[in-house]
């Protein structure tokens, strides 16, 4: 064996030593991480890192320079922090790591999360019994099981229509019962939950309340499914953590809903983050729906965006329908009338069938 080969052989065994030691170190890091998580301590500890660097560099006899050694160890600390963070997300109850099987939620005969496409349709806001009744009839005629409608409306302006409140929920319930539908409606205040549960089958938590932690906790204490919408400017990680608030209190029946995020783009009301769907499906075991109405704010692209949602693997599509959108008290530019809804449903069911979903 020549000298070069000998040196390389030595190097191979040193590499393996380093590998063993670095993973030994990683195991200690994981144990420290678990203690920190239990005690809700910050994982990053710059004082500890500085102490270790001082100790290590004071023992450094070269040939590497102090700055090089510091650089290498800083990289090790960084990787250690990431390892502690990974271990933490592993522990999330909504994560696939925790529960590999899909969560399937049965609501009024619709099994959301079962691989098929489900629909939640209805007016933006409940305005009258007659209005909801007309929409509910159309919804039922398309074989849909879930009726949506806003009774408590968190509006951008305090002078806009704020919804009919409990009376709106009563209207929804009456129309839904007549047509055999389940009711999905938004609740904005934990104090309304108990009374609202008399009329609701699914509690919606809207985008503006995605980080209303008291509301999330209250929704975690009930035994009805929750449809949680992504916040206007929420990252996927913040969205997942909002769901974790609900499941951590015992309610695991959560449907996530991508509804567009705020970007610089003005051609649509929000920017539909379609890639959030497969990411949420990979990261969590929860069903994921797409609200095409709020993400686009445009009737003319509801169908293509709904097709995209199905193609990318969403468990359902949500959209708004109003008997006469021109006179709707909210969101008149984006709701479909009943004729448009009927043809939208015919087309989208066709697409879902082609995808076998
Ligand atoms: C460790 C990791 C991250 C911290 O910023 C400091 C140190 C390390 O890798 O040594 C371990 C650790 O979490 C700790 O000692 O507190």
Automatic annotation (TrEMBL):
Database matches in SUPFAM superfamilies: Aldolase
InterPro entries: Aldolase_TIM, Chorismate_mutase_GmP-bac, Class-I_DAHP_synthase, CM_dom_sf, CM_II_prokaryot, DAHP1/KDSA, DAHP_syn_2
Domain Chorismate mutase span(s) in chain numbering: 1-88
Keyword Transmembrane: no
Gene Ontology biological-process annotations: aromatic amino acid family biosynthetic process; chorismate metabolic process
GO molecular function, one term: aldehyde-lyase activity
Top-rank taxon, per record: Bacteria
Key word Transferase present: yes
Keywords noted in UniProt: Transferase
Protein name, per record: Bifunctional 3-deoxy-7-phosphoheptulonate synthase/chorismate mutase
Species for this entry: Oceanobacillus jordanicus
